[in-house]
From TrEMBL:
Single GO biological process annotation from the record: proteolysis
Localization per record: Periplasm
Organism: Sphingomonas leidyi
Residues the entry annotates as binding substrate: 117, 153, 225-227
Name of the protein in question: Probable periplasmic serine endoprotease DegP-like
């Protein structure tokens, strides 16, 4: 943005100030900061000298949220290294962990809004055991998780109470860059802390993609523990939910992000009713259109997103999309840096038929596509068989514990199938972890193996595996027969039930 500044020259004559002005043609453009215009746009006289009265009314509805988690980890400090044998075995140990964040009450009967990452397991192998909500008056409540959505990073909790203090959502669409905002939360577990600043930007894209990558940016201090807390306008309405910071050090550097109320409230309303959030999906890998790629593809610069990969069997393949296509419009809406392809597609109702305008081989054309339903985020996660920190986190711990095979699995998606070298159309589960004390480890099972059948019955989830194992137990059998595929090779493996 460029601003033109006008110089007003003051000349002092005989102790009196005179102002020189330049005559301008009628209707001529004036400088953005022309004195008369700036005075008219200056903050109104009613802007508060202090936020104290407003904060006193709002702060009782802002809560502290803490979780207790059970974390299972390997006690051997040399695990995964050539010196593993010196560590005394690989028996896992269980430890307790805690997390802290913020939230706010939205009803007198105890509904609480926060970020999903505040109440989710913070590490692989972790399970959330309990969630506690603490009010500013030190009352503590055990909270029930009503619903959560990983992609929007929102969650709704419920505590049992009556006549509780609460706050309402406002209209974030009326927010403007430069407006005052107030953030209340619990940074670093210090208790209720209040910070103020202005709206630094609207519709800020952070690059994470999806239906909710449009944030309110603010310079109001937001630190660790502020996540899930409310951002208020000067009318005391919640216009955002503080969720992220941009910081090279982990501390506040004046760049924080809040989920706009216009994006958050429909999700929260759906979660409160027990519903699931359905989003549009094409089944493609996307790549930014850089100037050199645009030259190579023979398309205009700065328009659209490149299709880097087309997933087999998904809506994009069925509609005829190809690698190298450059999508420039979705249902008539332009693909821009502030309105990304993933944002536009995710906000299309699944099952809707929409036109995609694109460039292919330098020529513009239109394809019609029936938008699919976006799979759960854990299924879309990138999976590296050699990296235990990649891929779906956690798995279905309870059903795998019941399965008693000593393995943790997740549903096999086309993306994961490609990464482990099996046909993308394969149905089964992928092995995430194998207990070294199990018979499965002794039989050679490892991370990245794909199990397609258990006792010759097809499986597609951890629950399917558990069902077959339980059936074997009920029949008095001590083993189950797995069909295990590793890349192009498959084999039967009989694994003992622990």
């Amino acid at each position: 943005m460029r601003y033109a500044y006008a110089l007003t020259t003051a000349i002092l004559l005989s102790g009196a100030a005179a102002t020189m002005t330049l005559n301008q043609p009628a209707g001529a453009q004036t400088a953005q900061n022309e004195p008369g215009a700036i005075q008219a746009a200056a903050p109104k006289a009613g802007a508060p000298m202090s936020f104290a009265d407003m904060v006193a009314k709002l702060q009782p509805a802002v809560v502290n949220i803490s979780t207790t988690q059970r974390v299972t980890m390997n006690a051997n400090p040399f695990a995964g290294t050539p010196f593993e044998a010196f560590g005394g075995g690989n028996q896992p140990v269980t430890r307790q962990a805690e997390s802290l964040g913020s939230g706010f009450l939205i009803s007198a009967d105890g509904y609480v809004v926060t970020n999903n990452h505040v109440i989710s397991a913070g590490a692989r192998g972790a399970t959330v055991e309990s969630i506690t909500v603490t009010l500013p008056d030190k009352r503590e409540f055990k909270a029930k998780l009503i619903g959560n959505d990983a992609q929007s990073d929102l969650a709704v909790l419920k505590i049992e109470g009556t006549n509780l203090p609460f706050v309402k959502f406002g209209d974030s669409t009326s927010a403007r860059v430069g407006d005052w905002v107030v953030a209340i939360g619990n940074p670093f577990g210090l208790g209720g802390s209040v910070t103020a600043g202005i709206v630094s930007a609207l519709h800020r894209v952070t690059g994470q993609g999806g239906a909710y990558d449009r944030f309110i940016q603010t310079d109001a201090s937001i630190n660790r523990g502020n996540s899930g807390g409310p951002m208020f306008d000067l009318n005391g309405n919640v216009i955002g939910i503080n969720s992220q910071i941009l910081s090279p050090t982990g501390g506040n550097v004046g760049i924080g992000f809040a989920i706009p109320a216009e994006e958050a409230k429909p999700v929260i309303d759906t979660l409160m009713k027990g519903g699931k959030i359905a989003r549009g999906y094409l089944g493609i890998g996307m790549q930014d259109l850089t100037d050199d790629i645009a030259d190579g593809l023979g398309v205009p610069k700065g328009q659209g997103t490149v299709v880097a990969r087309v997933e087999p069997g998904q809506p994009a393949e069925k509609a005829g999309l190809k690698q190298g296509d450059v999508i420039v419009k979705v249902d008539g809406k332009a693909v821009t840096p502030d309105q990304t392809l993933s944002y536009l597609v995710a906000n299309v109702k699944p099952g809707t038929r929409v036109p995609l305008e694109l460039y292919r081989d330098g020529k513009r054309q239109t394809l019609n596509i029936v938008v699919g339903t976006r799979p759960p985020e854990e299924q879309l996660a990138q999976f590296d068989p050699n990296d235990e920190n990649s891929g779906p986190g956690g798995g279905d711990t309870e059903t795998m514990a019941a399965a008693s095979l000593g393995v943790q699995v997740a549903p096999l998606t086309p993306q994961i199938a490609q990464s482990v070298g099996v046909n993308p159309s394969t149905t089964g589960v992928v092995v995430l972890q194998v207990s070294q004390a199990s018979d499965a480890a002794g039989k050679g099972l490892q991370r990245g193996d794909v199990i397609t059948t258990v006792n010759r019955q097809p499986v597609a989830s951890a629950a399917d595996v558990a069902k077959q194992v339980q059936a074997a137990k009920s029949a008095g059998k001590g083993n189950v027969l797995l069909w295990v595929q590793r890349r192009a090779l498959g084999r039967f493996v009989s694994v003992g039930i622990n």
